[in-house]
């Protein structure tokens, strides 16, 4: 049997295919359930050409601004999370807004956990998820980040973020009279 010798270039290409990359995702004003589906693909490695259901080839994902997620319609009030301590009477139900106030990363974590499915590798994949409530990332994690996952929805600018020139250039439906009194 002949031994296959890879050139340095081919060896580096092969290492790059199997390497675990670090991606960053900004969760500001994003729906956590839609974002979780996208992030679960990166954690499981479904975005790679070498993906197989039994292989563990997923990447690390760093999610920032989890404290500023946005849920559709009345999800904050009516989405309930169940927890059971496995003791008698140990079942509790917590609304999403209360869980978000207690831990600003927990709602997003639970959404990604559910999106990862019921695979045997779910816990291993969740270990590669790094959540931060704001945009402060520790330096030892920041040096590893090499890619960015695009947000699903564009974040609109707040009214206070527009300059005076942009506000003046915005088309007006009508002009207020000079003697109009604003209250």
From TrEMBL:
This is 39S ribosomal protein L13, mitochondrial. One of its GO terms (cellular component) is mitochondrial large ribosomal subunit. It comes from the Eukaryota. SUPFAM superfamilies: Ribosomal protein L13. GO terms for molecular function: mRNA binding; structural constituent of ribosome. GO terms for biological process: negative regulation of translation; translation. The keyword Metal-binding does not apply. Signal peptide: none annotated. Keywords: Ribonucleoprotein, Ribosomal protein. The lineage of its organism: Eukaryota, Metazoa, Ecdysozoa, Arthropoda, Chelicerata. The keyword Ribonucleoprotein applies.
